[in-house]
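Comment thread on ticket #2218

A.B. wrote:
> Attaching the input chain for the structure job we discussed in standup.
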Amino acid sequence: MTALSQLTAREALEELALGRISSMELTRACIQQIDRLEPGVHAFITRTSEQALSQALAADTLRAAARQSGQPVPPLLGLPLVVKDILALSGVRCTCGSRILEHFVPPYTATSVQRLLDAGVVVLGKTNTDEYAMGSSTENSAYGRSFNPWDMSRVPGGSSGGSAAAVAARMAPVALGTDTGGSVRQPAAYCGVTGIKPTYGRVSRYGLVAYGSSLDSVGAFGRTAEDTALLFSVMAGHDPLDATSMDVPVPAIQLNGDASLKGLRVGVPREYFIPGMQPEVENGVKQAVKQLAALGASVREVHLPHTEYALPVYYLIAPAEASANLARYDGIRFGERKDAEVMWDVFYRTRGAGFGPEVKRRIMLGTYALSAGYYDAYYGQAQKVRTLIKRDFETAFQSVDVIATPVAPTTAFRAGEHSNDPLAMYLEDVFTLPTNLAGVPGLAFPVGFDKAGLPIGMQLMGPHFREDVLFRTAHAYQQVTDWHKRVPALAQ
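C.D. wrote:
> Ran it. Output below, let me know if you need it in another format.
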């Protein structure tokens, strides 16, 4: 049998159902893989190994009882999972990659995590993240950067780099992340795994520590589209605890061995193939589109004319929302407190010592954009252009079912390469930001490797609430290719 840590989520669940392995064996195999590769990869901020073993034992006991009684079991019973350290898990600290929340232990659990726990998952720990999910490389974490399992001199992407690295390194078959401007899809591309950013409002944000409230989405990682769909299907659905949660039915996602895409209309926007792109990335994505055509899809060019404005629009709206959301961390209501004799000095000392440089930069940008005299010129205007970006997608989806693009202009860059150039770092998300601004779903998955042996990712975007089409398309592609099956040398 394949080493247990190498099993995909689907394979692991099948082996568990047949009684060939136990959740204890599978969980121990993942823990051993983590022991072997941490802290080298540094995918984790907090590990919960003892709790995971207790959950695994309970899963095995429940499965044994169900065999005796003939009763069904939860769909993900006994499956190991890791959770980005920006989602609340009751009794386990939630740092958001920040010193200001170093000792915060939430008394509640995020809805997305709770639904997975109810489905039987085993939680191995909380993964590293850029502070408050603000970053594209997981270098902004107050607890040290994470490393890309394919090349330890490279970043794993961000802000969900710890989760993506954990799945790529076979520390866990699946993981949770969040995506405000590309923070699931870009790490998925850099680490050679599959990642979904659902439609805004499809998965509850309750228990997700807010960065940009109109942009944040809870997403998932797996090694295949099928694995990722397993998590999505459990998490998705209306939640009365989240005012932005949409009460829209979640269609059953049926993925089988059929690789036919006959009747699927694929759009390719010229605006996403820009000067300065790494040629291997452009070629890899175009070859993947040809493969979709070979499976029966029709391919046509589409236009998203306001794409060029997505970067400035995002970096006005997201920091403005961050400025408002992070105002609560003042040492009085939330966060580690730095005492002083004067109240204002408590605020200044607490926020000055607790927040890292990138978070401070975005708070200042957002506060400026919201300030009197500048609100209409900056934030207000950005919201108007955001509407135009959303309309671009609505128009395009009248003629196509999915839109195929690169995830990032390059493969994973070297650690420290953009540390002194914030704009260069922001440009890494130039192809993922429009999806968040429009609220549509996006799926990233591997479609090749460059000459340095680094994964190349492709992004599929779909109409609102049509994640099923994205999963079906990527699954068909993965039936006839093996990019997603490749394993980093250190993880073997």
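A.B. wrote:
> Thanks. Noting for the ticket: The chain has a mean pLDDT of 96.
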